[in-house]
């Protein structure tokens, strides 16, 4: 038997060389605000209930949204609201924000409590995206909107470009809903069936419109199964609407 088998995973503490993070970020941030932006509630709880980054996260979410919305509003003057909503989501939702955080190496600097460390908190999309929003909020308070805009636009631009080139694949569920609305076909819903043990759960989703099934898909989460089902149903529904 290998001696390494059964060893407990070592979870290193947060990095303290934050000048590396700021160099990647591209804008200086006041040290006290930077520290607060990196303080997850799990660490705060285990260290005497010090302030957390949650207020900065709230602010950063609003700043991020206005910067990205303003950018795409002016960048794509001919696109409708329905076109702009999924483009914005592609830049401000949890998945892209978590990816940006990983690209920056932000995960290595987050102050996490032991409970989150042992459950691989540094790789949880929710923690990564929330911390990125908190850092945006800290940058806004420290350096103002223009400096924050330069960072946000630089980091989100690749996701915006990809989104504009994706067409209906950007968000199959939104595309299905728009087709159903255009064809006045009724309410879109998803029937979901789960199977397998909790640690390896699989889901199957079926797109239902006014009681009729249009497509089925599978995934490791409800959301992924729904998106897969919407993709499967898209072409069939499009032909029906345009018939």
From TrEMBL:
- Which top EC class applies here? hydrolase
Q: Which Pfam families match?
A: dsrm, Ribonucleas_3_3
The family database entries (Gene3D superfamilies) matched by this protein are listed as: 3.30.160.20, Ribonuclease III domain
* Enzyme Commission number(s) from the entry: 3.1.26.3
The listed locations are: Cytoplasm
GO terms of molecular function: ribonuclease III activity
Record's keyword terms, sorted: Cytoplasm, Endonuclease, Hydrolase, Magnesium, Metal-binding, mRNA processing, Nuclease, RNA-binding, rRNA processing, rRNA-binding, tRNA processing
Residues that, per the record, bind Mg(2+): 57, 130, 133
**Stretches assigned to the DRBM domain:** 171-239
Its UniProt entry gives the catalysed reaction(s) as: Endonucleolytic cleavage to 5'-phosphomonoester
Cofactor(s) in the UniProt record: Mg(2+)
**In terms of one coarse class, where is the protein primarily found?**
cytoplasm
| Active site positions, chain numbering | 61, 133
Occurrences of domain RNase III (ranges): 32-144
- Quote the function comment for this protein: Digests double-stranded RNA. Involved in the processing of primary rRNA transcript to yield the immediate precursors to the large and small rRNAs (23S and 16S). Processes some mRNAs, and tRNAs when they are encoded in the rRNA operon. Processes pre-crRNA and tracrRNA of type II CRISPR loci if present in the organism.
Assembly state and interactors?
A: Homodimer.
What's the family?
Answer: Belongs to the ribonuclease III family.
Q: Which NCBIfam families match?
A: RNaseIII
Name the record gives this protein: Ribonuclease 3
């Amino acid at each position: 038997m290998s001696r390494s088998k059964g060893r407990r995973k070592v979870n290193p503490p947060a990095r303290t060389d934050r000048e590396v993070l700021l160099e990647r970020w591209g804008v200086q941030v006041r040290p006290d605000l930077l520290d607060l932006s990196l303080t997850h509630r799990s660490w705060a709880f285990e260290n005497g209930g010090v302030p957390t980054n949650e207020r900065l996260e709230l602010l950063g979410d609003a700043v991020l949204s206005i910067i990205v919305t303003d950018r795409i509003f002016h960048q794509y003057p001919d696109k409708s609201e329905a076109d702009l909503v999924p483009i914005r989501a592609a830049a401000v939702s949890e998945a892209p924000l978590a990816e940006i955080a990983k690209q920056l190496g932000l995960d290595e600097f987050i102050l996490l409590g032991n409970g989150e460390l042992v459950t691989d908190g540094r790789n949880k999309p929710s923690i990564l995206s929330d911390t990125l929003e908190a850092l945006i909020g800290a940058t806004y308070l420290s350096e103002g909107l223009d400096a924050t805009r330069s960072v946000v636009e630089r980091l989100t631009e690749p996701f915006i470009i990809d989104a504009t080139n994706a067409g209906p694949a950007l968000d199959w569920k939104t595309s299905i809903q728009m087709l159903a609305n255009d064809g006045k076909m009724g309410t879109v819903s998803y029937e979901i069936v789960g199977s397998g043990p909790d640690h390896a759960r699989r889901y199957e989703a079926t797109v239902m419109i006014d009681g009729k099934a249009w497509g089925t898909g599978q995934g490791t989460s409800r959301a992924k199964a729904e998106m897969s089902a919407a993709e499967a149903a898209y072409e069939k529904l499009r032909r029906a609407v345009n018939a």
